[in-house]
Design a protein that fits this description.
about 425 residues, mainly alpha, two-stranded antiparallel ribbon, globular, 5 strands
Length: about 425
């Protein structure tokens, strides 16, 4: 069990989180939240009974990041359209967003999210500390975590967009922490809620079973089935079928963007550059003030059947490796905390589409690695990771791209390599447990 924090430490944590929240709210006060807006728009169209305008149209049989056309028309004000991303969450959240839209206005709920998300993001670093059970000073680790998330695109983009991935990362880490500290029912409930927002955390139940947390797995199944049945009861099966079709289409699309940090987009640039094509810009976008140029850093292609099979196999192999590592650690009486960081990182890299903020739960362990290898070397390590994955790094990568004329989107390659280096560092901790 992790020893409880002292009262003075709790006060210091509260002060740091308060300051971090105010800083984030101030910086991102006037920055649009296109992903958060997507949920709001989906809820509005659900209330209007226009279920065909909830999920993206997928007109080309591929995922191209465009929301339904009627969204842009609804958002058009004085010839300008707010940036909005497509909605790709389970239908239960359409129902919730629709109910909220009838009670409060969008700006109120967005402001609320902008205050909550920095607290959740900082809390991820605290949860990682409890998961690894290392005798590391809490306040310095939390401070390093806040600085790292503030500098890296991992945290920057998530905060700018009020991304629900912040909540998913928090719930995923909470499920691990609760289970490892004797509260397995709560751990299973947290994992079920995370999977109800974004499906992929469900696969981590394999790791809980391998670690001997059977009550967590049972709790996850129970709460997961309850949430699934509730979602179907509230929104109907046809909308769920449409959602699953959207998820399947996304997994079958190779989408290359500056912040799609995983192996699939990088492989696409390395070996399928002639097949990748610019994302087409529909003619109707000009009607709603959407100022976009063809491509604009986005390229995509349909994934061949063999590639899809290999991609799915890679994710399953990652879970199998994680199960072996966790089981071995538990049998040897060693700490399996770093195994979670390592395996979740490998899974994000193997995932067909992992955005920069999909690494929040993994990056939460970065401050701990600073102390693991020594403060001086650790600070240099985390500074390099943060700078190379920051919103300032693209300029450097584009400079290389202009001279080598490769790759199509250089920051995608750089971001993926940096995340690989970070995950490999956690693999070092797994290999050298003692």
């Amino acid at each position: 069990m992790t020893p409880p924090l002292k009262r003075s430490e709790w006060v210091a944590i509260a002060c740091l989180m308060f300051g971090f929240t105010l800083l984030c709210v101030t910086i991102y006060a006037n920055v649009p939240s296109p992903d958060f807006l997507a949920s709001w728009m989906a809820g509005k169209f659900w209330v209007a009974g226009e279920t065909h305008n909830i999920y993206p149209p997928l007109e080309n049989g591929m995922f191209d990041l465009f929301a339904p056309r009627d969204w842009y028309e609804a958002l058009t004000v004085d010839g300008e359209t707010q940036e909005v991303f497509p909605f790709i969450y389970p239908p239960i959240w359409v129902f919730l967003a629709g109910k909220l839209s009838q009670i409060v206005d969008y700006e109120t709920i967005r402001t609320f999210a902008s205050y909550v998300n920095p607290v959740l993001l900082a809390s991820c670093a605290l949860l990682a500390l409890r998961i690894t059970r290392r005798p590391i000073p809490v306040i310095p680790a939390l401070l390093i975590g806040m600085v790292f998330f503030s500098l890296s695109a991992i945290g920057q983009i998530a905060l700018m967009q009020n991304q629900f991935q912040i909540l998913v990362a928090f719930l995923t880490l909470l499920s691990i922490e609760r289970s490892r500290n004797g509260h397995e029912i709560a751990g299973g409930a947290a994992l079920a809620l995370a999977a109800a927002i974004k499906l992929y955390p469900a696969i981590f139940v394999i790791l809980f079973l391998a670690g001997g947390h059977r009550r967590t797995a049972v709790s996850f199944v129970g709460f997961g089935i309850a949430l699934g049945l509730l979602s179907i009861a509230l929104t109907g099966w046809p909308l769920h079928a449409l959602f699953l079709h959207t998820v399947s289409t996304i997994s079958g699309t190779v989408l290359v963007t500056p912040v799609s940090w995983s192996f699939d987009p990088m492989i696409g640039q390395m070996f399928f550059e002639d097949t990748l094509r610019n994302r087409p810009i529909p003619e109707w976008t000009a009607l709603y003030g959407i100022d976009m140029k063809p491509g604009e850093g986005f390229f995509f292609m349909a994934k061949p059947a063999l590639w899809k099979a290999l991609s799915s196999g890679a994710m399953l192999a990652t879970m199998a490796l994680g199960a072996v590592l966790i089981r071995r650690a538990e049998r040897q009486g060693a700490d399996s905390g770093w195994v979670w960081a390592f395996v979740m990182g490998l899974f994000a890299l193997a995932n067909p589409l992992s955005w920069s903020y999909h690494y929040i739960a993994i990056a939460a362990f970065a401050p701990l690695f600073v102390f693991r290898i020594g403060l001086l070397r650790g600070v240099v390590w985390i500074a390099v990771i943060a700078i190379l994955s920051s919103n300032f790094a693209p300029q450097m990568s584009y400079w290389v791209q202009d001279r080598l004329h490769w790759p199509l989107v250089s920051f995608q390659v750089l971001g993926t390599l940096v995340m690989t280096a970070m995950v490999a560092s956690f693999g070092y901790c797994v290999y050298h447990r003692h």
